[in-house]
UniProtKB/TrEMBL annotation:
It is an enzyme of class 1 (oxidoreductase). The gene is proC. One of its GO terms (cellular component) is cytoplasm. This is Pyrroline-5-carboxylate reductase. Pfam families: F420_oxidored (PF03807), P5CR_dimer (PF14748).
Length: 262
């Protein structure tokens, strides 16, 4: 199985690193990257080949598109004549529907839309997969397998991809912003920045592990909240400052933006 990744920046690069970490042989992954210094860095770091797009896709069973949304259709148009029958195109782009991509590829090429996230870099990604109208079930399964190498995968109808983008695609940034604010709050309380960073990151990681155990978040929260105690005081302040409403508004804004991009 040969995989070509066109556009190996933050997201394409995370999928590349995750695939290699998961055991894909470097010889089976070809990178197409417009920035020569990025291409050189990936060759050096991962031992992958870099080729011009038409040569790369001519060899590929799966073509992963990691370019910006506005680049997706032009890239497809530029590689259309080199795509082999039976190839699966996997687009990682936000806001580009399969209905916009399918006219750019020949019949017999499946287009699958995936919304991944950057923790794919460490094998802890979250991806949602949606096949286009002309995608074969095998192609959808191949895309799910590919992303399964770098994290968890759900299959959704394409109509839900904008919601997925708002929740898990952009989601890591919400966590990182919370982490920054939380560390800074520790510094305000007199902790060293190093200690505050360790406390926050391990608290996030440990809490994520507890959440993964399957206990409902509300129960886990209650277990921390002593009546009249410190947590109740903090949660009261978060409620007063509109934490839940902020999440509703933030994810709605991302959802609307994802729709606008298309
Ligand atoms: N960054 C993220 O957390 C996520 C990004 N995405 C999607 O992934 C895509 C890429 O986003 P980022 O990685 O953040 O952007 P980026 O700018 O880091 O990466 C894009 C890469 O594509 C390369 N490129 C551009 N045109 C090219 C071409 N014609 N041929 C070969 N390489 C080309 C650029 O040099 C760059 O390295 C976007 O469509 C975005 O919607 C999806 C989910 C999460
Ligand atoms: O910000 C963006 O548009 C991309 C899509 C999801 C995460 N990053």
């Amino acid at each position: 199985m040969t995989i070509a990744i066109i556009g190996a920046g933050n997201m394409g690069g995370a999928v590349l690193a995750g695939l290699l970490e998961a055991g894909h042989a470097p010889e089976s992954v070809i990178v197409v990257e417009a920035r020569e210094e990025q291409a050189a860095a990936l060759r050096e770091k991962h031992g992958v080949r870099t080729l011009p797009a038409p040569e790369a896709v001519a060899e590929a069973d799966i073509v992963v598109l990691g370019v910006k949304p506005y680049g997706v259709v032009p890239v497809l148009e530029s590689i259309a004549s080199s795509l082999r029958q039976g190839t699966t195109v996997v687009s990682l782009a936000a806001g580009v529907p399969t209905s916009a991509m399918e006219p750019a590829v020949p019949d017999g090429v499946s287009v699958v839309r995936v919304m991944p996230n950057t923790p794919a870099l460490v094998g802890e990604g979250m991806s949602a997969v949606a096949g286009g109208a002309k995608a074969t079930p095998d192609a959808v399964a191949a895309a799910a397998d590919l992303m399964g190498a770098v994290g968890k995968v759900v299959t959704v109808p394409e109509s839900q991809i904008d919601a997925v983008t708002a929740i898990s695609g952009s989601g890591p940034a919400y966590v990182f912003m919370i982490a920054e604010a939380w560390i800074e709050a520790g510094v305000h309380l007199g902790l060293t920045r190093d200690d505050a960073t360790t406390l926050v990151i391990q608290t996030l990681a440990g809490s994520a592990e507890l959440l993964k155990s399957g206990t409902h978040p509300a129960i886990l929260r209650e277990q921390v909240t002593s009546p009249g105690g410190t947590t109740a005081a903090a949660l009261g302040a978060l409620e007063q400052n509109g934490l839940r409403a902020s999440f509703l508004e933030a994810t709605r804004a991302a959802y609307v933006r994802s729709k606008e991009l298309s």
